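> call design_seq(struct)
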């Protein structure tokens, strides 16, 4: 979903500023072509309007967005980030939420104009699925939203907006996007030629900018990166800020090779480690922020996809135990691990030191924390990891009882590659479509 909004100033408002503000003489310099607007280099601004101050309500082509709408949607964003949002960031998010609601309103209005309908039953079904993702019934989820300062009406409006916009694009954009067999076959050939190279599971936040607003967009990108590094949800920020249609899925681009990305992004993704977020990346039309979730080899067997058979040994500490009191237990646990001769005597060793044993045969190496993945890759059958854990959660060790190595990947299908190219082209046309809606909109702030 695309994310930006603008505003119009009425002729009466311009007149009021002119009357209230003394007219200051202006020295005219040579005109400079700024984005084709022919704006003089030396100008005087009449009035003291602060571009960072916005009122909390708006009327978009006659549809009212209330302060309650803004606050309830803001509460959703804050809840998605665990409530860990500083006050200054909260104010910036409030402005962004209002812009998002304006875009959402334009999208719903365009769907209505195109006679695109999203039924209440469909919205309710999606709402029920979201509630299930939170492990709550629809009623419990409504209560949860109310506790967080939001409402089911707010999230249902967002569901309706996203569904309506997808249907508009499927009717007005997608039929005019074509991808030839030759294009897809060329990518398949490059995939085979690059067998063994890395591919990346990437998330992206795209912030559009003109040459005049690049500095502002860069500053916004820096603030988003700072919040994500402090623990905020990348997906939640992508949904609210990204101007790519992948915003609706938290910015997820799926698995891509570096060559499939623009050159500026390709150079950066090669340098990222799983879990790492990039600095702002200048690209034509704005800035991108990348999050690398994972990486694997093209058409190869990634050893981190190996299925493991594990035993976990855990020693828990009583509440209030001191570091000095815990140290002997940790040392005894580490010494006991040295005596393990495969999984056959693990239960016996665990009983001698009072450790709990849990069996697991569903874990893949990539499912483990990054610190343990490298350790596990180098373990032989019957060996254990070093002790790990904390005073609060107890100390643990994993014993490798078996490992099933993965089969080589056949790579994405013809249809998957074709779909990805089509989606990229739909995204670009969708951005232009929404820009046109904004340009023609009448938006009043109250």
């Amino acid at each position: 979903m695309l994310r930006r909004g603008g505003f119009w100033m009425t002729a009466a408002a311009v007149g009021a500023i002119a009357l209230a503000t003394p007219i200051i003489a202006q020295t005219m310099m040579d005109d400079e072509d700024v984005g084709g607007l022919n704006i003089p280099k030396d100008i005087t601004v009449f009035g003291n309007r602060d571009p960072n101050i916005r009122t909390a309500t708006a009327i978009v082509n006659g549809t009212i967005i209330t302060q309650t709408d803004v606050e309830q949607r803001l509460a959703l964003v804050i809840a998605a980030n665990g409530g860990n949002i500083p006050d200054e960031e909260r104010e910036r998010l409030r402005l962004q939420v209002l812009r998002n609601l304006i875009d959402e309103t334009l999208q719903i209005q365009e769907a209505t104009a195109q006679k695109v309908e999203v039924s209440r039953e469909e919205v309710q079904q999606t709402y029920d699925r979201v509630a299930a993702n939170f492990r709550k019934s629809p009623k419990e989820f409504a209560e949860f939203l109310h506790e967080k300062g939001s409402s089911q009406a707010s999230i249902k409006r967002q569901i309706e907006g996203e569904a309506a916009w997808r249907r508009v694009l499927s009717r007005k954009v997608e039929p005019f996007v074509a991808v030839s067999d030759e294009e897809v076959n060329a990518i398949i050939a490059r995939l085979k030629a690059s067998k063994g190279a890395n591919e990346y599971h990437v998330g992206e936040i795209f912030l559009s900018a003109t040459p005049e607003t690049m500095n502002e967009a860069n500053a916004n990108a820096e603030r988003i990166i700072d919040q994500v590094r402090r623990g905020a949800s990348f997906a939640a920020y992508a949904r609210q800020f990204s101007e790519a249609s992948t915003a609706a899925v938290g910015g997820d681009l799926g698995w891509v090779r570096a060559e499939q990305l623009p050159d500026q992004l390709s150079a950066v993704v090669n340098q990222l480690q799983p879990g790492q977020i990039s600095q702002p990346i200048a690209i034509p039309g704005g800035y991108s922020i990348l999050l690398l979730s994972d990486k694997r080899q093209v058409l190869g067997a990634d050893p981190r996809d190996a299925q493991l058979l594990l035993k976990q040994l855990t020693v828990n500490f009583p509440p209030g135990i001191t570091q000095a009191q815990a140290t002997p237990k940790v040392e005894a646990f580490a010494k006991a691990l040295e005596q393990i001769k495969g999984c056959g005597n693990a239960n016996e060793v665990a009983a001698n030191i009072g450790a709990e044993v849990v069996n697991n045969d569903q874990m893949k190496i990539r499912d483990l924390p990054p610190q343990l993945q490298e350790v596990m890759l180098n373990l032989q059958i019957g060996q254990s990891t070093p002790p790990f854990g904390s005073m609060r959660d107890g100390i643990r060790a994993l014993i490798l009882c078996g490992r099933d190595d993965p089969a080589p990947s056949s790579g994405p299908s013809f249809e998957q590659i074709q779909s990805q190219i089509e989606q990229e082209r739909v995204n670009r046309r969708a951005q232009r479509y929404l820009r046109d809606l904004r340009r023609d909109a009448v938006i009043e702030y109250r």
